[in-house]
Specification:
The protein is elongated. It has a domain of about 35 residues. It is about 30% helix and about 15% strand. The N and C termini lie far apart (about 85 Å). Strands 1-2-3 form a 3-stranded mixed sheet. The protein has about 80 residues and is of the alpha+beta class.
Length: about 80
Amino acid sequence: MVINVYEAKTQLSKLLERVATGEELVLGKAGKPMARLIPYRELRQPRKPGRLAGTIWMAPDFDETPEDIIDAFEGSLEDPE
């Protein structure tokens, strides 16, 4: 269905509501299609792994958890009193 430019000018708010629900509309002049109204979607750039390589530092023992902390989480610590 081609919507005449004159109708589009007078009914723009209603047409935008239709487009917002996902409908795509074709605008035309003298019955000839000239443009499409489509829902706006933000373009997201794909993530690029390693983008921060070399900018973040981690301690060499990052993955090593001290035994006293493991015991505290597991409830293995004896009461110091």
